[in-house]
From TrEMBL, chain A:
The protein's assembly and partners: Heterodimer of an alpha and a beta subunit.
Amino-acid positions noted as binding FAD in the UniProt annotation, renumbered to this chain: 201, 227-228, 241-245, 258-265, 279
Protein name in the entry: Electron transfer flavoprotein subunit alpha
Cofactor binding, per record: Binds 1 FAD per dimer.
One BP term from GO: fatty acid beta-oxidation using acyl-CoA dehydrogenase
Entry superkingdom: Bacteria
InterPro entries, alphabetized: DHS-like_NAD/FAD-binding_dom, ETF_a/b_N, ETF_a/FixB, ETF_alpha_N, ETF_asu_C, Rossmann-like_a/b/a_fold
TrEMBL record, chain B:
Keywords for the protein's UniProt record, in alphabetical order: Electron transport, Transport
Organism of derivation: Sphingomonas gei
Stored InterPro entries: ET-Flavoprotein_bsu_CS, ETF_a/b_N, ETF_b, ETF_beta_N, Rossmann-like_a/b/a_fold
The protein, known as: Electron transfer flavoprotein subunit beta
Keyword field contains Transport: yes
Keyword Transferase: no
GO biological-process terms attached to the record: carboxylic acid catabolic process
Free-text function comment from the UniProt entry: The electron transfer flavoprotein serves as a specific electron acceptor for other dehydrogenases. It transfers the electrons to the main respiratory chain via ETF-ubiquinone oxidoreductase (ETF dehydrogenase).
PANTHER family the record matches: ELECTRON TRANSFER FLAVOPROTEIN BETA-SUBUNIT (PTHR21294), ELECTRON TRANSFER FLAVOPROTEIN SUBUNIT BETA (PTHR21294:SF8)
Domain Electron transfer flavoprotein alpha/beta-subunit N-terminal: 23-212
Family, per entry: Belongs to the ETF beta-subunit/FixA family.
Pfam families: ETF
Binding partners and assembly: Heterodimer of an alpha and a beta subunit.
Amino acid sequence: MKTLVWVEHDNKHVKDATLATVTAAAKLGEVHLLVAGSGAAGVADEAAKIAGVGKVHLADDAAFEHALAENVAPLIVTLMESHDAILFPSTTTGKNIAPRVAALLDVMQISDILSVEAPDTFTRPIYAGNAIATVQTSDKKLVITVRGTAFEKAATSGGSGTVEAVSGSGDAGLSTFAGSEIAESVRPELTSAKIIVSGGRALQNSENFHSIIEPLADKLGAAVGASRAAVDAGYVPNDYQVGQTGKIVAPEVYIAVGISGAIQHLAGMKDSKIIVAINKDEDAPIFQVADIGLVGDLFKIVPELTEKL
Amino acid sequence: MKVLVPVKRVLDYNVKPRVKADGTGVDLANVKMSMNPFDEIAIEEAVRLKEKGAASEVVVVTIGVPKAETDILLTARAMGADRAILIATDDEVEPLAVAKLLAKVAQEEQPGLIILGKQAIDDDANQTGQMLAALLGWAQGTFASKVEVNGERVSVTREVDGGLETVDLKLPAIVTTDLRLNEPRYATLPNIMKAKSKPVAKKTIADYGVDVAPRLKTLKVVEPGKRQAGVKVGSVDELVERLKGLGVAK
């Protein structure tokens, strides 16, 4: 099978989310990549070095700079004439574009796969990960999104792919990019961090969140996450949210501070290797999944912990 | 401008899903069913557009069991939708087929905007809105946290992995809702009583001539591996020792 992988990037570098998707694609067959962007030749060169990669299709066009689904979907449909499967990481970009491609190809997409059981059979989570379904497709072409935490990352070196320019139909004239507010953080990215410190509603306000959670995270070199309750209450921006509808993470260590452990939150972090919970309520559901729990007042415990580490 | 809001009837988000012993799916017998939470946000947004004068009519549509008429479609009308369309079926319909049916409804209704939930909390597919946009050849503003209609365009602020992004779309367009777009109002009892007189058009899949044969076959559904609860430590010092043991701290 000939597969195509959507390369997630910022027109400068390949993003980590791409690597697990390459691993999933390699289980299906030959791996080609698509770099759609503007001034993205450097990304294509970087992508060509990913282990196991064959051809890298580079579609360089101002219309692709912000990965608008209306503009990139027709390009992918054209490339699918010579590929059997397209795989996207389950990022907001992947989730935005993949179904548009699937509908244009008249294919039923398989979302957020956890494993490849056979070339037409995959497992995927349903009901916020409370059940795992094994599904078999009868479609001739495959459109798939890949859960990044479920596959190993492909190595970023060792590959010797060849870059080939392709052109799409440009701007579909339906949508324009009007701006973004992307937080610049010195901390690791949530989805690729080895350690995450997450805070919940028990922090009470934004000031406490910053003064309690962040020093601990910085001491550990960790990323900072949050429960939906903390995001809804405005303590931190939306991109901090871990859970069913936020980010799915699986770090080596996940430290949940003042998070009760709603099903929707557990869905986003229960595959972490070690879960540490700090909560004043000893019956909080988070303790049912935590490897190490400490019951008590987070306002005392966390500063003490930060100091002693 | 007419706004169309497709909604789905799902297992209530407060109910813990139970996998059937025979591995064929999740048990939906005798459990509370509700409107998908993201779809409530979609209705709220449509009703607010009408209240602001940006929309003239809010039409809600569902594809599902006939009982939806008296539960989620009643809730939708009580929240402010003017009328409803029920495309009745007892079968599960996949997102691609749902999008095809909705495309037919859109051709009949000619809405200026279609607002959908970004995903249903049962199959977590996150596909229907984008697929519908593709089939209609419309622009799509997914995972919206802010929607502003300005004449012939709509500005949509999207929740993306790194933060927020704003796109400017040509109407007609598709918007899918994220959690923080708004806080849906409750369907009050007086409004539920009044909603009963708002019309529901009853249709079947055959009325639309769409092939809804499933493309995916579910071979089995199992519970995920369970985590075992670990130990509780008694002090910060003990926690520090444990973390050091894991190599988290020096």
